[in-house]
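Internal tracking record. Fields below are filled automatically when a chain is submitted to the structure queue. Please do not edit lines marked as system-generated. If the sequence contains nonstandard residues, flag them in the REMARKS field before resubmitting.
Queue: standard
Priority: normal
Entity type: single polypeptide chain
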Amino acid sequence: MGTRTAMRRVVVAAALVAIAGWLLVPAARAFTLVAGRQSDPVPPADLVMEEVRFEAAPDTAPSAVAAVPLAAWTVHAAHGAPAVVLVHGFKTSREEMVPWARFLHDAGYNVALLDTRGCGRSGGAFVGLGATEPRDISLAAEMARDQFGTTKVAVLGISLGAGAAILAAAQDPAITAVVADSAWTDQDFQLSRLGSLAVGPFRIPLPPYGVAAVDALVGARVEDARPIDAIARIAPRPVLLIHSADDENATTPPAGAQRLFAAAAEPKELWLAPRGGHVGAIDAFPEEYRSRVLAFLGRALS
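SYSTEM-GENERATED OUTPUT FOLLOWS
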């Protein structure tokens, strides 16, 4: 009887551990998804960059976004010339945007390279998956207007920053134009992955609090961050969508770019590059990429 009792206790203990682990998986996955990734971006030697720090003022709206210190580089061309705010991708930093800063600066634009919250040297423990970044982009655009002495500020974002740029412009009429490279339509795919766990060929349903955990960590409703629903509100300001036809990123399929283009109001443009992969059109077709972006900005910011 003693051996049987011990075995039963072992089985019960193992079952309790498995249940506890099953209950904790959504919280762990939510934390991993949105945990920030601070770094120390290194400025390139060929551009004169000024380090700028500014703080998001507290938001008193019902869906208040916490204030955090934000960091950016500014690259001055000429005081009063139009400016472009550059927004990097998921959990990277402003350093990723240096290739865009080079050709924009060469074309005579003032440039600001933003670290979004939770990334680079900006504060915040978590990234927002597009739910908090739009407000910070608007603040960066306001900083650019003050720094460069201009009222004409476009936003160019890639990947996560592309969708966030769309959302920022939809909310902020002071943003003059948007270039969105490899944008996402919504976060439905990312959030749906919190509901189950793959074990071999099977998917085990998880407790249904994963999305609520993400929202609690971020401090905003990520499920409401939907560029597909917001992009039409940018008009009559212009939007340029760029995407590679062979983008295999699960969150940014080429069909999403076509859906965004269909949902946008005029003036709008879509360049579907034949190849390049995720955010790769600039490398696959560097001359065409630059000429298209500069032509668009020339019309939008003239």
